[in-house]
Design brief:
It is a single chain. With about 650 residues, the protein is an alpha+beta fold. It folds into 3 domains: about 350 residues, DD-peptidase/beta-lactamase superfamily (Beta-lactamase); about 140 residues, Transcription Regulator spoIIAA (2-Layer Sandwich), CATH 3.30.750.24; about 140 residues, Jelly Rolls, CATH 2.60.120. The protein is built from 22 helices and 21 strands. α5 packs across α8.
Length: about 650
């Protein structure tokens, strides 16, 4: 009779199981090809992703550590390959990082428990589930036969007694419908169709005497109702679902994302119950290691005797690991150490957690649209127009910690092939934590290895000290000085002669005289006076009557506004040799609108307006062309300003 019942009970799920296994076999070849491509991509991405590089370093650290023993109480689990080891991390918005054997399939085992608990909460409601299963840690092994006798219920849903009671709460008409509901939920959580390992299921069912004893004790005390064998079958089946470390990371990220799968965008678990699942994972998920796990690593987590571990940082990401050898508490030896290293490296404790809200890269732009305040000659402008796209700026905002820095690093990785210089503007950053500083330092090293240069603007010294990049990188007081430095580098590479500003530019080479022949140039030069100015000298003063046009022959000058009643000056632009200033006043005859200060020993060709007016009478065509050149220069400046405003507009 018992044999007949056993055969009938095992036959029903076998059909569904065989279908899913057949489907998995059909996908096997395609999945292997995908894994090969993923491995090649991972090797390349590690060179440009500090987060992936960190996962790979941790993987390499423990790859040859064969401590621990595989589970043997389920015969099929004893066959596990102890050399396999995978780590995956998936962010709450769906970015996947993985290394090692992260795509290897194994059975989920007890990691199924928090997710089945979530389904039970959806089916029965919080109060009813609490009346059947508690949420108190036991300090006992996962398969202990202990109950909360005062409340007549298992202590929590993370130990076998509680998990069996939780599975008994799953709704459905008959075994097949209930199994389909669980598989559908787990597939939604993982973002792909999941199936059951029939060999492991059979092995668990055949040897699961202790779990069978627990179930009948619960039936005896009224903790669960009939049909007990159906509940047990569902429990053995849920533990036998095939997953990978990547799947676990996606499932954990779904919890981190309030129940919405970040890869598919589909809701997999009702939002009100996500916090309940995470709470019981935090207090009970690691069995009698739960207290030390919470103290050392500080993330809601769950382990399984199949070698898997999941961990969740709410609002930020999920972690999945796989390595079959277990420690004395029944947790994956390598998985525990990998999670501990990740927590230490990235400062991931839940009580230091912050929600990754909003957009951290406020905007990005290139040097082709936004230039420094340094105005340069036509030859230099041509070069910068061609090469300026290799200078990229990210304006950052908000608080920088692991998840927000991950967003920045993801964009760096995506844009990396298109820039040579990357400037991070920290002006709107409110906080930069220890993890963000460490990631900045790693990013700098990564970029240097790839021949790129990382620059920082508006980064306070107290922040810069602990993440000071080496090599070619540096820190600048503001974005303008960082842009100017990059422009100098581009000009140095293409035409270093243009940076030798102490040289004297011939009168005929002035930009404003473009298109004039030798006779016309000589005519204008005949009315010019050459003047010298010492560093700091005020060449033009705001409010004075405008009486001359200046052509900068050598040195450098800055155009500044006096602010705070003249207490300080605000630089508007800095001019290089070959450019003119004071030209607007020639058109409107007004007073000077700003100061012009000599930054270094400077020479100018000065054209008095009175003599230019005489030239307008004697050679009107020459004067008209001069005015035309001035108009074109002003028009070019306005177009440049329009482009910058559009680029910087909110």
């Amino acid at each position: 009779m018992v044999s007949a019942l056993f055969s009938e009970a095992i036959f029903k799920p076998q059909v569904a199981v065989n279908r899913t296994i057949a489907g998995a076999c059909k996908l096997g070849h395609a999945r292997q090809m995908h894994q090969n491509r993923a491995a090649e991509a991972s090797k390349h991405n590690a060179e440009i992703s500090p987060i992936l590089a960190s996962l790979q370093e941790i993987h390499a650290k423990y790859q040859q550590d064969f401590s621990g023993k595989v589970a043997t109480y389920i015969p099929e689990l004893a066959k596990a390959d102890t050399s396999l080891f995978g780590i995956a991390l998936v962010t709450a918005d769906g970015q996947v990082y993985q290394t090692g054997d992260a795509n290897h399939w194994f059975t989920i085992q007890s990691i199924s428990k928090p997710f089945v608990y979530g389904v039970a909460l959806e089916d029965q409601g919080l109060d009813y589930v609490l009346s059947k299963v508690g949420v108190e840690p036991t300090g006992e092994a996962f398969n202990s036969i202990v109950f909360d006798e005062r409340r007549n219920r298992p202590f929590n849903p993370m130990v076998n007694a509680g998990a069996i009671a939780t599975t008994a709460l799953i709704k459905g008409t008959g075994h097949d419908q209930r199994l389909a509901r669980l598989l559908g939920k787990f597939s939604d959580l993982a973002g792909r169709p999941l199936s059951i390992d029939h060999a492991v299921y059979t092995s668990e069912r055949t040897t699961g005497h202790r779990n069978r004893a627990i179930a009948y004790l619960e039936l005896n005390f009224g903790m669960i109702d009939e049909p007990v064998n159906e509940h047990l079958d569902l429990y053995f089946e849920q533990c036998s679902i095939l997953v990978s470390a990547r799947d676990l990371a996606v499932m954990a990220a779904t919890l981190a994302n309030n129940g919405v799968n970040p890869l598919t965008g589909k809701r997999a678990l009702d939002e009100p119950y996500v916090k309940n699942v995470l709470s019981v994972m935090y207090s009970c998920g690691m069995y009698d290691y739960a207290g030390e796990w919470s103290y050392r690593i500080g993330l809601p987590a769950k382990s399984g005797v199949g070698g898997g571990i999941i961990a969740v940082l709410p609002g930020q990401f999920g972690i999945g690991t796989f390595s079959a050898p277990l420690d004395e508490q029944g947790n994956s030896w390598r998985g525990i150490r990998a999670c501990e290293d990740l927590s230490k490296r990235f400062k991931l404790h839940m009580f230091k957690s912050r929600l990754a809200t909003g957009v951290v890269v406020r905007r990005s732009y290139r040097n082709t649209t936004v230039r420094s305040k340094r105005r340069r000659g036509a030859a230099a402008e041509t070069i910068l127009g061609e090469k300026g796209s290799s200078v990229c700026v990210y304006e950052l905002q908000g608080s920088l910690f692991f998840s927000t820095m991950e967003q920045v690093l993801r964009q760096v990785t995506n844009d990396m092939d298109s820039f040579t210089y990357l400037i991070l503007d920290f002006k709107r950053v409110l906080q930069l934590d220890e993890c963000a500083r460490a990631l900045l330092a790693q990013t700098n090293e990564m970029l240097n290895r790839c021949g790129k240069t990382l620059l920082s603007a508006h980064l306070a010294e107290d922040r810069a000290d602990s993440c000071e990049p080496g090599g070619q990188s540096g820190f600048f007081a503001d974005i303008d000085s960082a842009l100017e430095w990059c422009e100098d580098q581009l000009l140095q590479q293409e035409h270093p002669e243009l940076l030798r500003e102490r040289r004297k530019v011939p009168f005929a080479a002035m930009d404003i005289l473009a298109g004039f022949d030798h006779r016309e140039t000589a005519l204008i030069e005949s009315i010019a006076e050459e003047m010298r100015y010492s560093p700091g000298a005020t060449i033009v003063r705001e409010g004075d009557r405008a009486d001359s046009l200046y052509l900068l022959a050598a040195g450098r000058v800055s155009i500044c506004l006096r602010i705070n009643d003249g207490a300080r000056r605000q630089r508007l632009s800095t001019l290089s040799p070959g450019l003119a200033f004071g030209d607007v006043a020639l058109l409107d005859g007004g007073t000077r609108s700003a100061d012009v200060i000599a930054d270094e020993p400077t020479r100018c060709y000065v054209l008095p307006f009175a003599k230019l007016q005489t030239l307008a009478v004697s050679h009107p065509e020459v004067f008209s062309r001069l005015i035309g050149n001035i108009g074109r220069e002003l028009s070019a400046r306005l177009r440049r300003a329009d482009a910058e405003i559009r680029s910087l507009a909110d």
